[in-house]
Design a protein that fits this description.
eight-stranded mixed sheet; single chain; 193 residues; alpha/beta
Length: 193
């Protein structure tokens, strides 16, 4: 009697290798500022903690760093005793992306929403107004920035987080924006890179 060389054990090993192949193929070399450099895996869970010092002179009144390429938002409070790292949605194209320094100028729990003139031009079928609630694109909370029309806000559509999916704003899961809303103050520094 001859034995079949393709056993259950061989099948399991071949299956595991096939499943792991895409993850191995995603490894690459990426250059970062600071102490983290070298090989990184490119996936949504590959966030890394950052130090505030390369980006801000101080954290007086708190500091928020939004990293568009990493699709991550970093928050430090005044004395750096609180550090938070959140996955985000980011603008869907470079022409909708604004980078640089701004600050928190307002906060609204249960925000309403009106599309900007540019959004209405691109999407004339969109409504002129959406009240607070489950259909509101700003989710449960919105943090208004000194840049006109730009916000850090929640989203009810969790599929958007980790993607280039916004019209310029930075989106967070509703539970994360609720937490950030409580932490951030009017005047908190914001840097979008």
């Amino acid at each position: 009697m001859t034995r079949d060389p393709f056993t259950r054990r061989a099948f399991m090993a071949a299956s595991a290798a096939a499943i792991a192949t895409p993850a191995i193929a995603q490894e690459g070399t990426t250059e970062f500022r600071g102490s983290v450099a070298g090989k990184v895996r490119r996936n949504a869970s590959g966030f890394r903690a950052l130090d505030w010092q390369p980006y801000f002179d101080n954290t007086r009144n708190g500091a928020i760093l939004v990293d568009i390429s990493a699709r991550a938002l970093h928050y430090w409070n005044d004395d750096q005793s609180i550090y938070k790292l959140y996955p985000t949605s980011v603008p869907m194209s470079e022409d909708l992306t604004r980078r640089g320094h701004t600050r928190v100028v307002g906060k609204v729990e249960g925000p309403d929403w009106r599309p900007t003139p540019a959004m209405k031009e691109r999407n004339p079928e969109w409504p002129d107004y959406v009240p607070p609630g489950p259909d509101n694109p700003l989710g449960t909370h919105a943090i208004y920035l000194s840049w006109t029309y730009y916000r850090i806000h929640g989203t009810h559509d969790t599929r958007k987080i980790g993607r280039r999916s916004s019209n310029g704003c930075i989106g967070l899961y509703n539970e994360h924006i609720s937490e950030l809303y409580d932490l951030a103050k009017i005047g908190t520094k914001v840097l979008v890179i």
